[in-house]
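User: Please fill in residues for this 330-position structure.
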């Protein structure tokens, strides 16, 4: 019997129009374009403006565009998985809301919370559904409205994040040499102290105190996270590369999470990859959490060829991290 592979057959993204530049940020907090470019590598990030707009609105736009682009009938989607840490609300799930907004009448779905590694965890989950043979069309969305949980009076956090959504269509294929090949995914809850959002959950339900203590904003011990992010992303990427006999000489792309240009460069150095094989758009969009990796796939779609080797890697709150080896299918 031929073994089924899960392949990405389309990708689409939604980016809000508003560009929050370093110049504008430096009027809000004590920072500068020079510091942000040197230490992080971000020039501007997109912000979702407008009353009543949330993660599901960005996700629905990405999904509608994906369906149109791939000529897919919304009624043919079996499952939608939404990787996000900024759901519209605790429940219903953002997957539920996106399905409704994008007309996915037959689909069921759920949210997946793995912060910046959300797209990777979602891709491996979708891989299992699709290769079971029971699911023919699965949509995976990475979407975050990080501006909703960012403190714009704190210069150590506000330059980092942006808002975006991107979606991929995943289908089964019997073809050799395409699809999701290998993964190495990890969690370590001891990292929760260094990167978290404490307020609003069952531990610290929303109260005047949680608001006063800014517990509804992302907290990050940047230095601590930086060190672990570099070593974990590089280790896991090199590991997946080595055990699949991939080399810098082969046609290998690195699709890294976009949190800090220095982290991306360090990982690429460990993998001995040339600059032109590393997808980087952090300067334009910043860290969009679960959306960074599919946003890269969307921007590089025209340059990718069938059979190209890709290593997708991320590190984020939890801690969560990992790498996936994927062979591009079109
Ligand atoms: O995606 C999830 C995973 N997250 C990450 O991977 C992020 C990992 N961490 C980082 O990317 C970096 O640690 C940051 C970009 C968050 C910070 O960069 P850093 O080089 O680690 O800076 P730092 O926190 O050590 O701060 C150095 C100095 C401090 O001043 P003093 O104490 O040396 O006087 C900060 O107060 O830079 C100061 N600083 C700033 N100065 C101007 C911090 N933020 C700013 C700012 N503008 N925006």
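Assistant: Residues filled in for all 330 positions:
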């Amino acid at each position: 019997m031929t073994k089924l592979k899960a392949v990405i057959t389309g990708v689409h993204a939604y980016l809000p129009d508003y560009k929050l530049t370093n110049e504008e940020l430096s009027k809000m907090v004590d920072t500068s374009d020079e510091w942000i470019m040197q230490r992080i590598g971000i020039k501007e990030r997109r912000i979702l403006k407008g009353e009543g707009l949330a993660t599901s609105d960005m996700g629905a736009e990405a999904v509608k565009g994906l369906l149109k682009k791939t000529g897919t009938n919304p009624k043919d989607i079996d499952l939608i998985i939404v990787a996000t840490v900024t759901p519209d609300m605790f429940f219903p799930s953002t997957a539920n809301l996106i399905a409704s907004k994008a007309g996915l009448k037959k689909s069921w779905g759920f949210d997946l919370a793995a912060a910046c590694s959300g797209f990777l965890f979602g891709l491996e989950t979708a891989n299992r559904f699709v290769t079971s043979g029971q699911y023919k069309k699965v949509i995976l969305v990475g979407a975050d409205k990080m501006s909703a949980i960012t403190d714009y009076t704190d210069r150590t956090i506000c330059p980092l994040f942006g808002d975006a959504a991107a979606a991929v269509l995943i289908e089964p294929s019997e073809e050799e040499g395409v699809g999701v090949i290998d993964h190495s995914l990890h969690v370590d809850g001891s990292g929760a102290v260094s990167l978290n959002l404490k307020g609003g959950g069952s531990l610290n339900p929303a109260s005047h105190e949680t608001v006063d203590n800014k517990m509804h904003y992302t907290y990050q011990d940047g230095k601590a996270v930086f060190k672990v992010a570099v070593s974990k992303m590089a280790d896991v990427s090199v590991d997946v590369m080595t055990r699949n006999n991939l080399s810098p000489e082969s046609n290998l792309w690195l699709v890294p999470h976009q949190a800090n240009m220095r982290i991306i460069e360090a990982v690429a150095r460990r993998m001995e990859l040339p600059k032109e094989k590393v997808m980087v758009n952090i300067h334009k969009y910043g860290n969009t959490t679960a959306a960074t990796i599919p946003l890269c796939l969307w921007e590089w779609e025209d340059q990718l060829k069938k059979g190209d080797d890709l290593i997708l890697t991320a590190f984020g709150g939890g801690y969560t991290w990992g790498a996936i080896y994927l062979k591009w299918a079109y």
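For context: The two ends are 24 Å apart (CA to CA).
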